[in-house]
Amino acid sequence: MSDTDNTEMNLSGKLLIAMPGMGDPRFEKSVVFMCAHSPEGAMGLIVNKPSAELSLGDVLAQLDIDASSITKAGKVFFGGPVEGGRGFVLHSGEYNNDDSTLKVDDVFSMTATRDILEAMAHGEGPQEALAALGYAGWSPGQIEDEIQQNAWLTCDAEKAIVFASDDDTKWTAALAKLGIDPLLLSAEGGHA
Question: Are 17 and 48 in contact (CB under 8 A)?
């Protein structure tokens, strides 16, 4: 095995795009922003499945955070099937709480503490943000195996896709970034 075969795949800051026929309905046509990826596993947030039952205002009210100064109705996303009651905010990189913000790269950060919700409620939060409940998690080597089995495509993350207001177009927009027409995708994978 050559040295190039041993290079670690690092998907932090990338988008995972679910392939048709994945088999897990929770991830059907999903776009996942990868917050962290290391030999210990991976963690990401689904960015294109907003909750039909819950808004950001509902979450703030449940946490007794005054949301009267929020000017736009915020969505809450199904971030993934792990720890569905735990909240995360994926946001633009200019907002930073030194104690609790995970800086993914120069463009994206993630904060999972109450303080970012309070800042957002008072108009002092990040310029762009996406609130999610739950996350997608993978054990060591699992995401690499799923990619090899053609369950996911990957591409660089862009704010225009992640924070787009039309959630229904995020999957096709991510595929288009790779030059792929979703109508030409097959649920059957092949290996060369």
Answer: no
**Which CA distances in Å does 86 have to 59, 68, 135, 148, 177?**
11, 23, 8, 30, 31
State which amino acid sits at residue 153.
Answer: L
Sign of the Cα torsion 69, 71, 171, 176 reads negative
Whether the CB-CB separation of 120 and 129 falls below 8 Å is answered with yes
Q: What is the pLDDT of residues 107-160, one digit of tens each?
A: 999 999 889 998 888 888 899 999 999 999 999 999 999 999 989 999 999 999
Distance of CA 27 to the CA centre of its chain: 12
Please say whether the beta carbons of 78 and 70 come within 8 A.
no
Q: Round to whole Å and give the CA distance between 176 and 179.
A: 5
**Amino acid in the structure at residue 110:** M
Number of Cβ atoms within 10 Å of the Cβ of 47: 25
Tell me: the pLDDT tens digits for 55-76? 888 888 888 888 766 655 589 9
Query: Residue 88 in contact with residue 116, Cβ under 8 Å?
Result: no
